[in-house]
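Continuing the series of single-chain predictions for the mutant panel. This is the parent chain; the variants come on the following pages.
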Amino acid sequence: MIEAAKKLIEYAIFPPGSIIIAFLVISLFSTKKKFVFYLSLFCAVVLYLASISPVKNMLVSPLEQSYKIPKNLHANAIVVLGAGSYNKNTLDGDSLNRLVGGYILYKKLHLPIIFSGGYATSTRSTANIAKKILEQMGVSSKDIFIDNKSFDTNQNAIYTAKICRKQNFRKIILVTSAYHMKRAVMLFKKHNLDVIPYPVDFKESHSYNVYSYLPTLGNLVISTEALREYLGYIYYKLVFFL
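Parent structure:
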């Protein structure tokens, strides 16, 4: 009972719970100002829904189910897409999960690895950090190729295609987060790359309990990423295919 009370207090005082409560308080004290009342109530409801597991799963599941883990892995190279880094030595969570997925494939298939992603929050690119980590994990430097110029998925595809043409890599295994795979495959194929999608870093949860209906920042982040993927997919569909 004490542990449950402790958790409820934590959900209430840390974002997004505290922000949801703040919106509800504003709505309660704004009943005479209809616009403020409805706007704050709307913000509270939307923020709550985006922060709970069932809605997060509803948003991310269609993206993650676009491609299954393939059985046929005949290719010339493994391409891992970066998602950013925290500092000059540390990849962010998604980048690290993708890199581990690529490394597991490397150990199994002994194919060269291309790490694509220049964006970083430090002066050192994500790709350079990934290369250092791969070398520390025992991957030969001659098996590592990096793109440290790209800042989005479309540029990932452009610069990866250049590396593949130079190295005569005809078919690649594309490793990225499952929620990101649909947009990535579309863009890589647009740039004439023969792709085997290999999704990793799945975000969908498969079990619920009472805490699944309490708002968490982690769920909010994943819901936001899912919405961003839908928007990005629609944008590139309009730009490239209409």
